[in-house]
Amino acid sequence: MSKNKRHMGLKAKTTLGNTIIYIILTLMSIIWLIPFVCIVFESFRLENTGQVGYLIPEKWGFDNYKVLFTGDADKTVQFMTWYKNTFIIALVSSIIHTFIVLCTSYTLSRMRFKARRPLMNIMLILGMFPGFITMIVLYTVLSKIGFTGEGSVPGLILVYTASAAMGYYVSKGFFDTVPRSLDEAARVDGATRAQVLFRITLPMAKPIVIYQILTAFMAPWGDFIFAKYITHGTSAGMTVAVGMQNLITKSNTSAHYTHFCAAGVVVAIPITILFMFLQKYYVEGVTGGAVKG
Amino acid sequence: MKRLTTSEYIRLPWFKKILYKIGCFFVAFGLYFARFGSTIAHGVTVFFKGVGRELSDIVTTFVKGSWITRVSYVIMGFGNIVRGQIMRGLLFLVFEAVFISYMITTGFGWIAKMKTLGTEASRQVYDPVLDVYVSEAADNSFFILLYGLLSIIFCIAFIWAWRENVRQNRISEELLKRGKKLQSASRDLKELVDEKFYKTLLALPMAGIVIFMVLPIVFMIFIAFTNYDAQHNGYSVLFQWVGLENFKNLFSDASGTNLGYTFTHILGWTLVWAFFATFTNYFLGIVVAMMINKKGIKLKKMWRGILVLTIAIPQFVSLMYVSKLFSKNGLINGFLMRLGVIDWPIEFWENSTYARILVILINIWIGIPYLMLIATGILMNIPADLYESARIDGANSFQQFRKITLPYMLFVTGPYLLTSFIGNINNFNVIYLLTSGGAVTNPKYTVMGTSASDTDLLITWLFNITTGSTTNYKLAAVIAIMIFVVVSLISVIAYNAMPSNKNEEDFQ
Q: Within an 8 Å CB–CB cutoff, is residue A29 touching chain B?
């Protein structure tokens, strides 16, 4: 009898526990998703382009999206230009960034030379300075050669890719896990170091290559600090992030808030789709990077 | 302090355990600094010994060397060319020619001017022909400092090349004496894709780091010792060296700049923010991952998918939108007023206490999905029999979490915790995008015409004084150096305390 009662109690306890967890998870899902539902609703609102205290629009329509593609009268919304700028920056810098990171991480993982330890220590120390501080001098130099303001695209590509080698940690962690005996076997068979890299290691490194491209491609969409400084208030040279922030400044928000919402939706869709396709690689990179440090 | 054995430690009452732990920490801390001092002393001796060795090597090579080697001391690459390594020799020779001509024409001039950073500010001069005022060509402190620095780096590169030239002469001489052949140019090139492949691979990445990281950072460190700001812009009013003055202002308010007060308070908030932002995310992320992973919970993929979806949406979009949700006439206030909870909108961003709590809460919203991903992977690796035996011993789920899950997670993710703490110290995006719309500047944080608000971190403060209407580069440089000091101190302490701090070669 008592045994039976205890058994029932345990079962009831688990059910209760699971119910609480279901409730928490449901609440969390709502909290996590609700802002994205709200932004979609607000992007369709026509009656007022500023902020209003209610969610469901009184008048629905695609006008906010139209403004994004055609621009507006006072030229505050130049979404297509921003999008084009960011896309070019993301595409070019993801290629260069990945190339540089792979070179550095492979070398530091596989080859042993006198300067290896000092190099890693120097990069560690340099990484402790806030990266933005390099802008004090770089901004002046870049503006001298016309890479700021309207010509910010090449300037930002330079800024994003030049010190890419500093982010070698995750992919070095990956290369460390590829057995070295493979390299040695090929070297015994007479392959040069370069052949080992291109014929043996790189084909196996597909996940980390995709992870690097993905993160480097997404970085310019999210970067703010460099982009804001380099574009310096010139609408034609802005990236999506800077341009959109410009739409919700104190003076612009009443005229452009719904345009901002529509822009948010338009930006999020392609990146979300890309991310969903490559999610596997991203998760591998994030979890691997955290464990290896 | 006496070291206790494990059994002695367990028998202590709880408060003595805590005291013992604190004592241990301070002992370790003291030991650490003692070790740090000896490391530096060791490094300095190694450096001077190395320099001495190099110098004696250079002298003996000259004394013992043939006339070809001795000529190479003046004409770089001479030895290489005479001995048949024409490609290497020409590289040396061209480098020397370029260096000497550059230094004579401009380089020495820049270095000489670095002492004063310019003496003549540019003036507006009336040009009667064009009928306009033009600025007369004069010194520009900024470019004197920049080109002076470049020239110094060029000199260092030259010294290194000259030393390499001497070394190659010695090696060639030794090889020839023993009747061996010197390496041909084609072999030199082949080495670059084989034994010396690392040189090829690292050339571009390192060039990028030197030009875009090392140089600007050294330049910035120099700026910290000048008075470069909006009043001393470098061309109409030159800036000068001021020694340690900027750093002195940081620790005393005697100069009336209010810098010390502002700096310590913003630093305090930065550390508080970094602590909460890191650890709330970390623990809640683990808890969420455990809830989803729990046996008997269905739709695991869906729960995880919902959270991962929010990672995919660009962070700046969610941050800016959420910032607007909480603004004075945003949706949250509208909703609360409709419900009748409040009559007037809550000033979430204008009130500094609300704003500080809110940035931490929203950071949790942003960060949990990442932590959930990381934690899920690691939790699955914890051997299930550990939990099994704990259950048999009568441990409840909280005890299991505290004694098994948490230690395991901390062990594996120690380095990650450190990097994310440092990342949060410099977390520009979250603070700037959330608060730049509404935050009210704190009148007590006014330094030399610049201002800051209560939610500002060191990095956002730095951004504002570098890009705002009143720029203050010297202050920015000082703040950057202080961020470096804080970050490096924390890293060094944490790194030494970390259990997973193992030799990297163990994993390979």
A: yes
The distance in angstroms from the start CA to the end CA of chain A is 54
> ipTM for the complex?
0.86
Cross-strand pairs, B226: B241
| CA triple B190-B193-B194, angle to 5 deg | 85
Output DSSP code: residue A236: G
A177 interaction partners in chain B (CB closer than 8 Å): 507
Nearest to B314 by CA among A175, A241, A211: A241
- What's the confidence (pLDDT) of residue A286? 67
Determine the pLDDT at residue A293: 39
Mean pLDDT, range A269-277, rounded to an integer: 82
Cβ of B315 within 8 Å of Cβ of A222? The answer is: yes
Residues 80-119 of B with CB under 8 A from A: none
DSSP state of B241: B
Burial degree of A169 (CB within 10 A; 0-12, 13-18, 19+): buried
B331/chain A closest Cα distance in angstroms: 5
Q: Which of A98, A242, A235 is nearest to A160 (CA)?
A: A98
For A185, B57, B118, B153, the CA distances from B140, given in Å and listed in that order, are: 59, 42, 7, 20
The answer, yes or no, to whether residue B268 has pLDDT greater than 90, is yes
Q: Which position has the token pair 């059910």? A: A15
Instruction: Tell me the torsion sign for CA atoms A158, A160, A161, A165.
Output: positive
Judge contact between A129 and B480, C-beta under 8 A.
yes
Overall size of chain A counted in residues = 293
CB contact under 8 A, B334 and A54: yes
CA-CA distance, B77 to B97, in Å (whole number)? 11
Q: What is the pLDDT of residues B402-411, one digit of tens each?
A: 888 888 888 7
Task: Provide the pLDDT for residue B506.
Answer: 41
Interface check for A249 against chain B (CB to CB < 8 A): the answer is yes
Give percent of chain B above pLDDT 90.
Answer: 27
Give Cα A166 to chain centroid, integer Å.
17
Coil, strand, or helix at residue B447? strand
Query: Which residues from A are below 8 Å from B504, CB to CB?
Result: 176
CA distances from B226 to B146, B232, B250 (A): 13, 10, 14
- Please give the residue that has the higher pLDDT: either A14 or A22: A22
B35/B504 Cα distance (integer angstroms) = 21
Give the whole-angstrom CA distance, residue B225 versus residue B241.
Answer: 6
Rounded to the nearest angstrom, the minimum Cα separation between A73 and chain B is 24
Q: Within a 10 A sphere around the Cβ of B441, how many other Cβ atoms?
A: 14
SS3 B126: strand
pLDDT at position B348, please?
86
